[in-house]
């Protein structure tokens, strides 16, 4: 808990995403980065841990900057956007609650635990970990 919020978010993402093999998880590589048009990556690309870490940090900075208007909550929302996408975060009740000043977001935040329409225990654990380490009540 002595680490800055951004570094805590990096560790959480690394823990839950793990290093993706682009042969099996294409178009995802590194720590869950989705290949964007024009990027040099290809199916089967062997990404080093150092390169994956740099890509994760670049993506997370980009997502956190989208939510800069929420101040100290930008890292929490950035970590959520890294997992579910910024479009879903922008429509979420969590984002609306935080923008309006409400700090009672537990139920709304932990509602983002579904994968392919089903509740997922691993995502619930991830959301709890994010809330405990990144949310400042």
List the SSEs and their pairings.
Elements: H1 5-17, H2 22-25, E1 28-29, E2 33-34, H3 49-66, H4 74-84, H5 86-91, H6 93-100, H7 106-109, E3 114-115, E4 118-119, H8 121-134
Antiparallel strand pairs: 1-2, 3-4
Identify the notable features of this structure and list them briefly.
two-stranded antiparallel ribbon, 57% helix, 8 helices, 137 residues, 6% strand, globular, mainly alpha, single chain
Model description:
The protein is mainly alpha-helical. It is built from eight helices and four strands. The strands form two sheets. Strands 1-2 form a two-stranded antiparallel sheet. Strands 3-4 form a two-stranded antiparallel ribbon. A hairpin with a 3-residue loop joins strand 1 and strand 2. Helix 3 (49-66) crosses helix 4 (74-84) and helix 4 runs antiparallel to helix 8. The longest helix is centred in the middle third of the chain and has 18 residues, at 49-66.
């Amino acid at each position: 808990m002595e680490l800055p919020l951004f570094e805590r978010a990096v560790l959480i993402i690394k823990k839950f995403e793990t290093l993706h093999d682009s042969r099996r998880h294409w178009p995802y590589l590194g720590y869950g980065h989705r290949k964007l048009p024009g990027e040099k990556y290809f199916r089967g690309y062997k990404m080093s841990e150092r390169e994956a870490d740099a890509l994760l940090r670049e993506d997370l900075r980009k997502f956190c900057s989208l939510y800069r208007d929420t101040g100290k909550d930008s890292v929490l929302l950035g970590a959520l956007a890294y997992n579910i996408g910024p479009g879903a975060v922008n429509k979420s009740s969590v984002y609306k609650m935080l923008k309006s000043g409400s700090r009672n977001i537990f139920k709304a935040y932990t509602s983002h635990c579904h994968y392919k329409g089903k509740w997922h225990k691993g995502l619930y654990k991830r959301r709890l970990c994010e809330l405990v380490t990144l949310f400042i009540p």
